[in-house]
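Hi everyone,

Forwarding the result from last night's run.
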Amino acid sequence: MKCFHGTTQENFLNLINNGDKPSGAWNCSDMDGNFYVYPENKICGDDEEEITSEGIQQALGNATITAAFQMKTQNIVILELDIPEDELNDDYSCDNMSSVASFTEYFDVNWIKKVYTTEFNAMYSPFCLPSLDNPNLNYLDESLELLAKSVQQSDSIQVFCDIIDTLTGNIAEEDLKSFF
């Protein structure tokens, strides 16, 4: 089944080199060893092109949160995968995710069909965090948390939308071999 996953290039390189799952943005799935994806059967869209576009957007959204936590300028990597349906499990790591995402208990590099990248600038970090009231949010650097509180208490939605538009506009397909 076609699925999408977004992360930072640092985490992606770790993943394809058989590294352990690094600590991430979410305490509900932190270090659990599972690989989370957005499968096409849980993505709204009228045709394959729309489903792919929405899958990339969902993966991009998750990857920007991961990049924001890491607080450094780096590439975001979005994977388009083909995962056997019997390997996919509904995501019950936190409320409301089972209808949106799935997971596998391992990662297989052979599932990768396409790789997309876009550059994340570290200055985007305070604008790209989810609500600081989210109970599933992992430990956050104190200085980033203070900036994010200011941003979230202001009317910053347009800045966030502009950042996502910039990231989306710069997405480019890459050759998987360039990462090895």
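The first strand starts at residue 2 and ends at 8.

Cheers,
N.
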